[in-house]
Amino acid sequence: MPKSPLPKAVALRIELKEVAPLVWRRVLVPDNWTLATLHHYLQWVIGWTDSHAHEFEIGVALVAPDWWIREAWSEEEANRYRDERRVSVAAVVAE
Q1: Max Cα-Cα span within the chain
Q2: CATH superfamily of 9-94
Q3: CA distances (Å), 84 to each of 12, 16, 64, 89, in order?
């Protein structure tokens, strides 16, 4: 049986918006992680307790948890977001 290839490691620079002074982290993560997994990892790396809502801004794309999308103010707003469980780190790096 052929072995599955190992995921590639990706170096990411994560910056927090609207925070002064700038808070950022450089992390090395597998490219097969979803952004949901990355979110949980960042909670640990930054020392947070997952007590606030979050979203990822990747260029003009918005990615958020599924509950955030379900509770959007309108269908138009919900359609602006992609579900973080369905977006991989590899897909983001490729964009």
Answers
A1: 52
A2: MM3350-like (3.10.290.30)
A3: 17, 17, 5, 10
